[in-house]
Amino acid sequence: MNIEPSRRMWWSGGHCHRCLVLVSLLICSEAVPISVDKTKVKLPEEKVQEPPQSVDTGLHYDRYLREVIDFLEKDQHFREKLHNTDMEDIKQGKLAKELDFVSHHVRTKLDELKRQEVSRLRTLIKAKQDLEGGKDMAVDHQALLKQFEYLNHMNPHTFEVEDLDRLIRSATSDLENYDKERHEEFKRYEMMKEHERREHLKTLDEEGRKKEEEHYEEMKKKHADHPKINHPGSQDQLKEVWEEADGLDPDDFDPKTFFNLHDTNGDGFFDEQELEALFTKELEKIYDPTNEEDDMVEMEEERLRMREHVMNEVDSNKDRLVSLDEFLVATKKKEFLEPESWETLEQNQAYTEEEMREFEEHLAREEKDLNQKSVDLQKQKEELERQQEQLNAQKLELQQAVEHMERLKTQKVEPPVEVQVLDSDGGNAAPVPPSNSQPLPPGHLQETPTHS
C-alpha cells in the first residue's frame, strides 16, 4: 500500500544501518582479527578486504565526530590509553583527560576542526533566522550555540578536554535514544497510513468502500502468507544463513567459524550493521519489493526489531557490540537451541486504537488551526486589498488636483494691451478696446485726449 513520498521515512546507511557510540567506534578501530578454525569446513577463497567504510551515525554532527576520531587515532599515546581504559571509565569521561598528553600536531588539527564546526553552526543559525524572516535582526550566537551540547561554545577557538568529554557523552546519549526515536517515527508512519486509508474510504460510495475493504483484507492475507520465520539469533536462523548464504553444510555448523565469516571488517566484534545483515534471508521470506502488499519501510522496522532483540539477549556489557566470547556464550543457552516462535510486525500492531484516536484528534486540531490561519490570512489579504484601493483612490484624487492646478496656471489671462488708432487729421483717436471687451454702458463715455 503506497504512501506519497512526503510521508515516507528514509533510513540512513542503506535503509537502517546505524553506527556505534563514539567509544565503540574507537575500540573497534584497533581490535585484532581472530583466527578462523579451518579444520571443519572449507572456507570460501579469501579476498583482500578493503578498509571498512565510515558509517553515518545519523547524528547531525556525524562528520565532526568522525573527523575527531580519525585524528585521535593517529596519536600513539591516546591509542594506548584507550585500550587500557575500562568501558565505563570511557563513558564517564576519564579518557578525555588524556587529551592533554596528545601530540601538538593532533591538538592543532583538533582546534581547527572545532573552529570549522562552530563556523558551520553559526552559518546554520543565520540561515534559519533568514528563513524565519529576521534578516535585519542581530544574532546572539553565543546564546544560540548553547543548544549544541557536544562542544563547549564558550571557547570557540580551541579543542579542550571538556570538548572531548562532551562529545563522548553526547554521542553515547544520542545514539542510545536513536532507536527509540525511530520506533516512534515508524509508529507515526503506520498511523498516518491508516488515517489516509480511512479518509480515502470516506470519499467512496457504499459499493466502492466494500470493494476497497475486500482488497485491503486480501492484501493483508497475502502478506501474512509466508514461510516460517526463525527466531533471530537462534541456531535455526544462523544455520540457515550458513547453508543458504555461505553455501556450507548445516551439519558442519560451527559458531566460532560462523562468527569469523560474518565479522566482515575483521575487528573481532559484530556491530549493529553486521548483525542486521544476518537477518536478510529471514526478511526476504516476508517482504518482496515487487509485491503491492509488502511495505519496505515495515521491512526495515522488522530488521531493527530483530537486531534489538539479539543485542538484548547477547550483548552482556551493553556496549552495542557483540564480542566472540559473548556470541559463544549465547550459543550455549536454551534460547539459542530451543527458541520460541518469532512474532512478526503483522502480529504486533505498532499502535493501539487509543493511540490512533489521539493521533487523529491531533491531526484534526492541526487541520482546524491551519484552516483558521487560512481564514485569517484571507481576511488580512482582503484588508490589504481594501487599503490598497483607498491608497489608489487618494493617489488618483491627488493626481487630478495637481492636473487641475496646472491647467489653471496655463489658462491665467494676461492684462490687455491698448491699441492706438489715428483719426482723420492724423491725431490720436480714442483707444480701441480689445475685441473681446464689452461695450460701455450708456452715460459712460470714454474720455478722449485733447490736442494742445
Automatic annotation (TrEMBL):
Alphabetical UniProt keywords: Calcium, Cytoplasm, DNA-binding, Golgi apparatus, Guanine-nucleotide releasing factor, Membrane, Metal-binding, Phosphoprotein, Repeat, Secreted, Signal
Record bears the keyword Secreted: yes
SUPFAM superfamilies xrefs: EF-hand
InterPro entries, sorted: EF-hand-dom_pair, EF_Hand_1_Ca_BS, EF_hand_dom, NUCB1_N, Nucleobindin
Signal sequence residues: 1-31
Domain EF-hand residue range list: 250-285, 302-337
Biased composition (Basic and acidic residues): 359-388
Main localisation: cytoplasm
Any one GO cellular component localisation term in the record: Golgi apparatus
Membrane topology listed for this record: Peripheral membrane protein
Pfam families per record: EF-hand_7, NUCB1_N
Stretch list, region Disordered: 345-388, 407-452
Name of protein: EF-hand domain-containing protein
Origin organism lineage: Eukaryota, Metazoa, Chordata, Craniata, Vertebrata
